[in-house]
Design brief:
The chain folds into two domains: 191 residues, no CATH class; 67 residues, no CATH class. The protein is built from ten helices and eight strands. Helix content is 51%, strand content 14%. The protein is globular. The protein is α/β, with parallel strands linked by helices.
Length: 315
């Protein structure tokens, strides 16, 4: 798929939109997720409208005005990297998804952060302390969150597969939003390799799950070494997907963004509405753990009320 002269190349397995799945991916740069949407669009064809991808992100991202608030409303999961807190958040969020019985794909970056000089230094020190190999193209993954996700969803009979995604940049690697939005530097190509692993092929034991993920990252490191020599992943890439829907979406959102700016300038009602909306989310950022957590708490209270009402009717 090519957009504005930049090509997103996807190879490997088709992402089944109706799978309840965990997606694991290396985090080469801060802006990986910008290109991931195009890859998922292509990999999920022809049923792209059915996929329900949600990211598991660092907690500070939910505070970003606009994008962070929208992701809260779309049920993205936020974690603090403090396992005592994160386990409770993940448990509530996963139980909520299971209760709703909506098929979802949860994307997690097991490395915890993108690949930079400082993060690679920390990863190398960790590897040396554990007698592990030093990586050049990835960071050593954090395994606790991944193993918990797999075991929790599998126990609820809610997990069909794990997808292993690998991203590679054959020419220019944009390290931040500054490269793309200010300097106007974008890669000519971004490549994704997708492998679907059915849940029946994934270990059940926590220790074995952690070892499984570490082995996947060792393989990923080797694949990326080959990728940067060949400038492509092995195998035939997926056929180019239709660009008309993307063009329609671009026109629609550009028009909508322009309309919002005009309304902010000319409409007092819209200005007040925007201010109230912003204050609401700022308040939730300061005094709660996010819109999605409040939504889940409301749902639990509503469910408890329904149960009490049903019992009274039976009596």
């Amino acid at each position: 798929m090519e957009v504005f002269g930049m090509k997103v190349v996807v190879s490997g397995d088709h992402v089944r939109p109706n799978d309840s799945a965990i997606l694991v991916m290396n985090h080469r740069t801060r802006v990986d997720w910008n290109f991931l949407w195009g890859a998922i669009y292509q990999a999920c064809m022809p049923s792209v409208a059915e996929h329900k991808l949600k990211f598991i992100l660092k907690d500070p991202i939910r505070h970003i005005p606009g994008p962070g608030w929208i992701m809260q409303m779309n049920g993205f999961l936020y974690i603090t990297r403090q396992w005592e807190e994160d386990q409770g958040r993940l448990s509530r969020s996963l139980d909520y998804l299971v209760t709703l019985r909506r098929r979802s794909q949860l994307l997690i970056f097991p490395e915890g952060t993108d690949l930079t000089v400082s993060s690679k230094g920390r990863s190398d020190r960790f590897a040396k302390s554990r007698g592990l190999p030093l990586y050049e193209h990835t960071l050593h993954p954090k395994t606790t969150g991944f193993s918990y996700l797999v075991r929790h969803l599998r126990d609820a009979d809610y997990l069909d597969a794990v997808y292993d995604l690998t991203i590679g940049y054959p020419d220019f690697v944009p390290q931040s939003e500054l490269d793309m939005m200010i300097k106007g530097k974008v890669p000519s190509e971004v490549h994704f390799k997708v492998q679907r692993i059915p849940i029946s092929d994934i270990p059940r034991d926590e220790t074995a799950l952690k070892a499984w993920l570490e082995e996947r990252w060792l393989l990923k490191e080797r694949e990326l070494g080959q990728f940067y020599r060949d400038k492509a992943f092995p195998g035939e890439p997926w056929p180019q997907s239709a660009r008309l829907p993307l063009r329609i979406a671009l026109v629609f959102w550009t028009f909508l963004s322009g309309l919002m700016l005009v309304m902010l300038l000319v409409s007092t009602f819209f200005q007040i509405w925007t201010l109230c909306f912003a204050l609401l989310f700022i308040g939730m950022s300061l005094f709660s753990t996010g819109f999605n957590q409040i939504e889940m708490a409301w749902y639990d209270k509503w469910k408890a009320l329904v149960l009490v009402t049903d019992r009274r009717k039976l009596e």
